[in-house]
Amino acid sequence: MRFHRQELEYMSQKPKSADALSQPRKRTFVFPSAVTTLAIVSVLVWVAALFIPAGQYATDADGSPIPGTYQRIESPLTLGERVEQLVLAPVNGIYGLLSPVRGFVDTQTVGRLFGQIGVIVFIMSIGAFISISFATHSLEIAVAALANRLRSRGWLLITAVMVLFSLLGSTMGFSVETLGFYALFIPLMSALGYDRLVTAAMIMIGATIGIMASTVNPFSIGVAAGEAGVGIGDGILPRLILWFILTAIAVAWVLRYAARVRADPGASLVGFDRAAPDDESAIDHAVEDLADTPADVPPRLTGTQKWVLAITALAFGLMIFSVIPWSSILNGSTGPADYYGTHAAAAPAPAPAPYWFELNWWFPQLAMLFLIASVLVGLVAKMPEKEIVRLIAAGASDMMSPAMVMLLAGGISVIMTNTQTLDTVLHAMEQLITGASAGAFAIAAMVVNIPLAFLIPSSSGHAALAMPLLSPLADFADVSRSTTITAWILGHGLTLLVSPTNVVIVGGLAIAKVGYDKYLLFVWPLLVALFAVAATTVAIVATLG
């Protein structure tokens, strides 16, 4: 609530009565922080796993579950070991390794990285780069200049960013990479009169709606098509139509809120308060500097600042270019792929040869890209060596809160994996959709994948687990496998928009310093609209054949 200065002065001078002093202050509920929220979710999932029986499917040569082979098994963990899993979940969420033999995640095995350490190092390197770049004041001046040009056309920027991120998400799964863009857009959107929720929604919803409406994404549609035995282009027409419709709905919803906030700052769900002094980051300082910059003073860049901007543009452009699996997308290949773990989009033989210009970078290379760029900015700006090191360390420390959120999100998936309850959840899903009519099956296939997407935020992992079961069931329901793939990705993407296990959402909210409860309040009507459109569309497509 906002007060005029005169009202504040009057209230401060007004004497308080003895009755007022003696009355206890009313406690109002405050939604916990993202870290606390995820810690609570971790405990709730752990408790639920105590009552969900362990089970497993028989698997084929590729490791895919075989329909109808589910059976109960003895729990692989004693009660003491279960307690240990809860305690160690955050540690496993950082650098737990998945054993290819046991399927167990811990830090004492040899296997594939399961934890979120790659994402954490990446965002910490982004924080370092932004810290040292903002120290040169080049980004603030560039943002202020851009804000002056877009002062009456902020809606155009929101639309362009959301459509671009949605397109990248739809075609190559672009999502985690968006964590690097908050530091660029938060000051700019603030200068244009928008709150941080607008920035967070623009980035998160833009990319996630693209995941939901994936068209040729090798990490979701490619894997699902490979498991279902169809081509990646099968069913692409309804998916393209859904991409246009769902993206338009999402953009319209964000623009509606943005226009309301800009016209009336009091309508903001998160407010425009400055960060507490002990919680300020380089981004917060940039926002404050822009707020104090007169709008009628045209900012000017020095030669050094122009070089810093060139390095910034090169770093972010190279990041986008380097992670796109160009050969897999352009050749429309299907097969095993892993977005979060290895960022590999390999296709079954004969696999298309990678193009000569493909870099196939992922978190290790991206982290070093921004660390090298940080040092380069410091050298261009002629900073002392100790100042470069100090700014890099300060920027990395700014990202510790988002890092804690991500490790807790990863820990939840570890709990479900190690208790071997995922197959039991999958079996329940199989039972729910068996024997349904074509239209009902398509909607059910979307709905039953929602809880599974909460437990498995990786689209490639979700597809590899669910599609071998959904595909034969779709045949019995007389629904094409390509339609089933569309229904599956719609349910998966819808969940990712709000799932606390999705690092894109919880990490983005943590960086933007937007409460999870405020985001839920903002996004729930959009979820209802997206669900209605998606369910209606897949039901019609399935019924028409």
Automatic annotation (TrEMBL):
Transmembrane segments in this chain: where?
A: 29-52, 86-105, 117-135, 155-185, 197-216, 236-255, 307-326, 361-381, 388-412, 432-456, 485-512, 519-544
Q: Listed GO cellular component terms?
A: plasma membrane
The listed locations are: Cell membrane
Q: Which residues form a coiled coil?
A: none
InterPro entries this protein is in?
C4_dicarb_anaerob_car-like (IPR018385), DASS-Related_Transporters (IPR051679)
On whether Transmembrane is a keyword of this UniProt record, the answer is yes
Q: Does Cell membrane appear among the keywords? A: yes
Task: Provide the membrane topology annotation.
Answer: Multi-pass membrane protein
User: What is an example of a Pfam family matching this protein?
Assistant: DcuC
Keywords, alphabetical: Cell membrane, Membrane, Transmembrane, Transmembrane helix
The UniProt entry lists the main location of this chain as membrane
Protein name in the entry = Putative membrane protein
Tell me what organism the protein belongs to. Answer: Thiocystis violascens (strain ATCC 17096 / DSM 198 / 6111)
